[in-house]
Design goal:
The complex is a heterodimer of chains A (258) and B (418). With 258 residues, chain A is α/β, with parallel strands linked by helices. Chain A has a single domain, classed as 3-Layer(aba) Sandwich (Rossmann fold), CATH 3.40.50. Chain A contains nine helices and twelve strands. Chain A is globular and about 55 Å long. In chain B, the strands form two sheets. In chain B, strands 1, 4, 5, 7, 8, 10, 12, 14, 16, 18 and 20 form an eleven-stranded mixed β-sheet that branches. In chain B, strands 3-2-6-9-11-13-15-17-19-21 form a ten-stranded mixed β-sheet, covered by helices on one side. Classes of the chains: A alpha/beta (258), B alpha/beta (418).
């Protein structure tokens, strides 16, 4: 059975229609890259899947494990195994990274009828994942993302993912703002989390990230639709000819050309 | 319907019916009552009381609070350290084994040098009323250079009967030169009552004092409190005021700074339902090279209202003053109202004074971030709300007090979200 089925999805912000008929099916263990120029709807798709209220789905359907995803609250989606790594991770002063993760883990456990995680077990889990992500211990007791560098924020997103162990992780422009060393660290962390059960949607503007997180499928998004799909070689084709080679432009440019 | 004169008669009747005290105390009482009779209760036409209407207090006939005892459970959070427990204005118990350098006791001749010299009973009707009803005041003396490690708790419990009662707690704390101590005042109770408290703190030259005031009165209580701190040369004083209970609350927190001294006045108010809390601060930079820091945070839900008025007076000679004032408010409901007003009067020319006030709502972006990790919407809001208050709560360094406080705050946040 497919893990995620997106059928003819339309979504708007205010009176602006951004997604205009997306079809996409993802099976367990698959890694799908979604590429596209600015304004093509990549981030909107990520936000809609995570349940952001400001995006309104006007048409279409999304099934997650056969259930209607769009009916679920954001927290229920997360508890069922959906994870969004934010393009711009939010700073939360006053809430430590560790406390936050424990609350998240316990929310999921409570939902499954499990008791709260044992404090020692939780610390063991955290230590294991820290090592996996090569993250600094000090980041645990700092408020979530406050004073983190750009690279630290993105790694923290992947660290959260490692702890929460989702079935479907959506990485929204996880590469943006990272230099090559930071990019490798993040990609390395993601690769350690790949498994036969875990699916990934990797949203990116650039092909560069896909050299490190090698996808099974690449989809090109333009003006709210998937205009081309292929294997990992499609990303290389895009690198050679650019989006313009496919006749695709940034949304602003597209407007300018009309 | 009762006329104003009859209500004043009720106060007069109570005043006249007090048990006799030594002459110097009775003189203070007489002066206090005379002041009160002249001033009357303030109205909203008085600029300092613009946002707080005390008519519900003026309208009520209060009985003197009767002698009762508080149980051990109520007092459990204050088990560690030195404690003085007042129930309905009467000393119920006082730690007998005191460390060297510390004296606690009732109002005696020893207090005369300082007693009633700082809090303004000529201009503040509530201070005047408190003074008119001087009873078993708490007097605490710390000898020069003494270091009192354990916190000194002053616990004021008010237990109302069938009809509303009134209690006028009065505290004088005199900290000697270069001495150090930690003081915590907690106010709690049950039923309908007026707690009208006055605390005067004299911080000797070079002394270091941490003060906490935790107000968790009953939901139907009126709480009016005046705190007056006098800082000696190079003294350091900090106070953290947490306001949780009461239906109508007014705190006047004042500090007067000598040369080179440093005052920190922090506060948190957390109100819901129809609660009203008003914090009025006056920092008087009376001498050069002193600094003051004020950070007050407010969280308001339902139809709660709050006011913050931060006066900073920098006198003509108070050059090199460094004063900072911040008031931040978080509104959890569309019906909550806050009025915030900085009031800076600067008569010196070489000073640094900054102030800032904000009123905001919960960050939707942050709430979504928490939800996207599986944390429920209500819990996400509680976490963010608690986080807003965190930096003030973090200033409470007495573990037992802090634990109780965290629990009380958490319960209150959680309740208001149900």
């Amino acid at each position: 059975m497919a893990l995620l089925e997106i059928k003819n999805l339309f979504a708007s912000v205010g009176d602006r229609e951004i997604l205009k008929g997306i079809d996409l099916t993802i099976h367990p263990g698959e890694v799908h890259a979604i590429m596209g120029p600015n304004g093509s709807g990549k981030s909107t798709l990520s936000q809609v899947l995570a349940g952001r209220e400001s995006y309104v789905v006007t048409r279409g359907q999304v099934l997650y494990e056969g259930k209607d995803l769009l009916e679920m609250a954001p927290e229920d989606r997360a508890r069922q195994g959906i994870y969004l790594a934010f393009q711009y991770p939010v700073e939360i002063p006053g809430v430590s990274n560790l406390y936050f993760l424990k609350a998240a883990v316990n929310a999921s456990r409570k939902d499954k009828g499990l008791p709260e995680v044992d404090a020692m077990d939780f610390l063991d889990l955290i230590q294991e994942k820290l090592a996996l992500m090569e993250m600094d211990q000090a980041l645990l007791n700092r408020p979530v993302n406050v004073g983190f560098s750009g690279g630290e924020k993105k790694r923290n997103e992947i660290f959260h993912m490692a702890v929460l162990e989702p079935k479907l992780a959506i990485l929204d422009e996880t590469d943006s703002g990272l230099d090559i060393d930071a990019l490798k660290l993040v990609a390395n962390g993601v690769n350690k989390l790949r498994s036969a059960e875990r699916s990934l949607i990797v949203v990116t503007h650039y092909q560069r990230l896909l050299d490190y997180i090698v996808p099974d499928f690449v989809h090109v998004l333009a003006d709210g639709r998937i205009v081309k799909s292929g294997g990992k070689e499609l990303a290389h084709e895009l690198e050679r000819s650019g989006y313009a080679g496919l006749g695709i432009y940034d949304a602003e440019e597209a407007v300018a050309r009309v | 319907m009762m006329g104003v004169a009859e209500r004043t008669d009720a106060w007069l009747g109570q005043f006249a019916g007090q048990e006799r005290k030594p002459r110097w105390i009775e003189q203070l009482r007489d002066a206090g009552f005379a002041s009160f009779a002249t001033l009357g209760f303030p109205t909203v036409h008085n600029e300092d009381w613009r946002f707080t209407n005390v008519a519900p207090i003026a309208r009520t006939i209060f009985q003197p609070a009767r002698a009762v005892t508080a149980d051990a459970d109520t007092l459990a959070p204050f088990a560690t350290g030195i404690r003085l427990v007042f129930v309905n204005g009467r000393l119920q118990e006082s730690t007998s084994a005191l460390p060297p350098g510390l004296t606690v006791g009732a109002l005696t001749e020893d207090a005369r040098e300082h007693f009633g010299k700082y809090a303004a009973s000529e201009t503040n009707a509530f201070v005047a009323l408190n003074t008119a009803f001087l009873g078993e005041a708490a007097c605490i003396y710390i000898e020069r250079a003494a270091v009192i490690e354990k916190p000194i708790h002053l616990v004021h419990v008010t237990v109302a009967g069938v009809s509303p009662v009134v209690s006028h707690p009065r505290t004088l704390i005199v900290v000697g030169e270069r001495a150090q101590c930690t003081l915590a005042e907690t106010f709690l109770g049950s039923g309908a009552y007026l707690n009208n408290s006055v605390t005067e703190i004299v911080v000797g030259a070079g002394a270091n004092v941490d003060h906490y005031k935790i107000q968790r009165e009953s939901q139907s209580a009126f709480h009016i409190a005046t705190l007056q701190a006098e800082l000696g040369r190079d003294a350091r004083y900090s106070t953290t005021s947490i306001s949780l209970g009461g239906t109508l609350v007014r705190n006047n927190s004042n500090a007067r700074l000598s040369e080179g001294s440093e005052a920190t006045l922090n506060g948190l108010y957390l109100v819901n339902g129809a609660q009203h809390v008003d914090n009025q601060l006056t920092v008087d930079h009376a001498a050069p090279n002193a600094s003051s820091h004020e950070l007050y945070k407010g969280i308001l839900d339902d139809r709660a209202t709050a006011a913050f008025n931060g006066k900073i007076l920098v006198r003509k000679d108070a050059q090199k003053t460094d004063a900072k004032q911040t008031n931040k408010n978080l509104l959890l409901s569309d019906d909550a109202v806050v009025n915030t007003k900085p009031e800076l009067q600067i008569l010196a020319d070489d000073v640094r004074c900054t102030h800032g006030a904000t009123i905001g709502q919960l960050d939707g972006e942050a709430a979504f971030y928490l939800q996207s990790r599986g944390i429920g919407k209500a819990e996400a809001r509680s976490m963010l709300t608690y986080a807003f208050a965190q930096d003030v709560i973090d200033r409470v360094k007495i573990p037992s007090l802090r634990n109780t406080l965290e629990r009380t705050i958490f319960e209150k946040l959680y309740d208001s979200r149900q």
